[in-house]
Amino acid sequence: MIDPAAISAALNAIPDPEKGTGLLAGGRASAPRIADGRVSLMLDVTGLTAPARDALDTAVKQALSAIPGVTEVRVALTAEKVGRTIIAVGSGKGGVGKSTLSANLAVALHRAGVKVGLIDADIYGPSQPRLMATEGQRPEAEGQKLIPVMSPHGVPMLSLGQLVKPGQAVAWRGPMAGNALSQLLDADWSGCDVLIVDLPPGTGDIQLSMIQKHKPAGAVIVSTPQDLALIDATRAIDLFRQADVPIVGLVENMAGYLCPHCGEVSDPFGTGGAEKAAAQLGLPFLGRIPLHIDIRIASDAGAPPATGEGMISNSFAAIAASLTDWIKQQKG
Ligand code: ADP
């Protein structure tokens, strides 16, 4: 006979990786079912990274197998589904870090356990193959569908840059760009709950038709702190509003200069501009990313800083967490 109290005690002796409470007490584990020598339970692994999930699964199996009378432990892992959600990342103009944010947001979401894919729709300068270290790789097709390329960072991705020669897409007119984007969005994204789409910068017809045709669930707007960039950001916000796409919030990039030598933060472009603008526009402020040489160096080397540890990686993780909360809220 198995002592149910021993099972409960063993589950509560394992700390929840997020909350630190016992697994039963914190609600991570369901009430176990005991039949003969078999113990079965469900573990809610929402929000955990793949390694954390595996470690928890192993810890539970080991702890329960050690209890007298237990001959078999069955653990079913479950996670709250957020559904396939398209999130557009836009900016009023180029060079503000829209592609950098898209890549790092995708990596940070992946690290948080979200099944995420990345689409690079920037016809003017598709830079995701370089940022995600998939340069030179061509997606294969199965039937009519493209198969996304797997980046070494665990995020599947497709870029216009993988479909055309460098520089070729710039000459595209609206319909051609729209068709190419459709190919990317209609690819085989099975297994992805969230798609991050790096849009072309600016607020022209191409952007508007892309947004209207493939209506994203929400848009993240990137801006630098300068007034001028913010005026551009306001135009980008109007573009999404025109197409009835809700704005998730504003991200301020290059927000303060983080000195690589002394670690001091200074503000060559001023600070808090985007936060103020967000408040004035009644939009959530999602966070700020400092101006730091490591971001450019790591990005150019195909190693998004969100893959690492430390302050910069944490900034991206915080924005990813806000985005996940927003998606959950939308899904009710
Ligand atoms: P966009 O997609 O808006 O055109 P990018 O993401 O390509 O902009 O960024 C433009 C350049 O600025 C790139 O060289 C990138 O590495 C660099 N960059 C972006 N954000 C930062 C930052 N926070 N700190 C330092 N360099 C950055």
Question: Could you explain how this protein is built, in words?
Answer:
This protein is α/β, with parallel strands linked by helices and 332 residues long. The chain has 2 domains: 6-78, 2-Layer Sandwich (GMP Synthetase, Chain A, domain 3); 85-331, P-loop containing nucleotide triphosphate hydrolases (Rossmann fold, 3-Layer(aba) Sandwich), CATH 3.40.50.300. Helices cover 35% and strands 21% of the residues. The chain contains 10 helices and 14 strands. The strands form 3 sheets. Strands 4, 5, 8, 9, 10, 11, 12, 13 and 14 form a 9-stranded mixed β-sheet that branches. A 3-stranded mixed β-sheet has the order 1-2-3, with helices on one face. A two-stranded antiparallel sheet has the order 6-7. A hairpin with a 2-residue loop joins β1 and β2 (38-44). α3 packs across α10 (311-330) and α5 packs parallel to α6. The longest helix is centred in the last third of the chain and has 20 residues, at 311-330. The protein is globular. The protein starts with a helix and ends with a helix. The model has no long low-confidence stretch (mean pLDDT 89). It binds adenosine-5'-diphosphate. Adenosine-5'-diphosphate binds at residues 91, 94-100, 127, 201, 253-254, 289, 291-292, 295-296, 299.
